[in-house]
Amino acid sequence: MDLTHSPVMPKPVGRSSFRRDLPANLFLVSVAFFTFIPFYFMIITSLKTTSQMRHFFWTPALPFYFENYATAFSLLQRYFVNTALIAAISVPGILLFSSMAAFVFARYSFPGRTILFWAIISLLMVPTVLTLVPAFIWIKQLRLLNTYWALIFPYIAGGQVFAIYLLKSFFATIPNELFDSAEVDGANTFQQYWSIALPLVKPMLSVIAILNTLSIWNDYIWPLVTLQDNNMRTITIGLRYFQGQYHTNYGPLFAGYILASIPLLVLFLIAMRPFVAGLTSGALKM
Amino acid sequence: MSTTEVIRPQQLTAGTRKRGVDYYIRKLGPIYLFLIPTFAFLLVFTYYPIFSAFFHSFFRWDGVHGQFVGFQNFRNLFTVDMQFRIAVPNVLKLTAFRVTVALTIPLLAAEIIFGLKNSRMAYFWRVALIIPMVVPWIVLILVWLFIYDPQMGIINTLLKGVGLDKWTRLWLGDMRLALWCIAFYGFPWISGLNLLIYLAGLDAISPELFDAAAIDGASRIRRIRHIDIPMIGGQLKLIFIMTIITQLQNFQDVMIFTNGGPGLSTFVPGLVLYHSAFYYSKMGYASAIGVFLFVIILVITMFNMRFMQSGVEYSPEG
Description:
A: 74% helix; B: mainly alpha; MetI-like fold
């Protein structure tokens, strides 16, 4: 028997693979149906007036009522700007500081290395509920309530932890010879970090950037308690208040939900390849 | 910088013994400099609040004035707090449900996508089921609020439409159903991140193992039980522990769906913490709940690391 030829993974083409995959595809179609039905409703309802919604509940209704989007946008505009600003400062901060720390942890041994590294990694086990209340009081004492910094500083502090954990193992895979020869050529620590190490972990940096943007965009409790001024609110809090005001006026409401989803969708489509590649590189397991 | 002296990382500590102070500054200076931003942020915005949480859990504290009360806060938690007594079984039910779901349904989907013969279809499904991951959490929750809405919601409208009027419910407004409605949201619970993690695990299994199983005539089910699941043990463990940690402290879902109601029926410990702190200014008591949750999560994490074997290590050399 020819054992060099793989008996399980032939590459059938055309109809036979279609027929073999049919039950699997049917299963996936039904899963996708239930996963996407809320979004279907979101889209069709966002284009209806209240009376259209009453008469055509399940199907799209013509003419499309695009004013809902204008209404939603004018109300949410401010929240978009706030969230984007906060993410635009926090995420580069996380990337810069975490990669600097991860770089020295991976590359050098120095007095205190082990203790300092564990001081960071053990924070992975600290749940956010532990620090919610004391951090709130602390931010209040620092007079940072109702400022962007109330979010940016803690986001940078918190986002670093997992990033350092991920990046350290990636930096460790870079062969030392690369740095040694750079050192011979006169590159200092910063140059080695910036021009050799960083470019090699770009996929991982984009994973970290996306994960942190997602969690900043999705954060609810912390901005809820630290930003009470309406002008400072982030998109999550803004949507919640919007929902409170518009309650049963689903058209503008759902238009707002869609607008709030678009930035992340765009980001994901741009960065999907490195993101999926980074996540599937086998880093995530215990 | 001198070009003659190339220091390998391993030699750095040992080599420094014989050298002078300026060597330390020149070689170790940049290293510590690189760590300063990280630790400055952690010190101010992470370590201090953690310390403060433990410290103030022994105080009656309104955020300004504190009065030492020993273990009183912890004692009250288990003796006089009605909300907390309801919250603990609630969070256990929700966590058990979510863990069961996270360990089965995304894995099933991953297995099915992995088993597709047509690689273009496999890529399509992979992307299609990951994309919902980027829909903001708040949007998903608010849409489910609409799904459950008694007047305009999808479920009741559907039931009325097919003549099952008597099956309509208040859903989130129903004492007995509210908690299960909260558990059920997000159906069919394919989390994009979990799906990706499982798929990554399956992709990493050596094809030789599948070949061997096929030669031995193992069925698909047997192969999944005896090869796939042991080989992705690391991923299962990660998702198991991450789901537990997330769910035990989660209260934002409940806060938006019902804020603990109707009555006290859907309270979870995190929500008790939130109400204590931000409705009643009982900051010390809230800190104690935080400490309690932290200890529970720590014990579970430790137990998990210590006693649950990670996946079988496989190397081609045997």
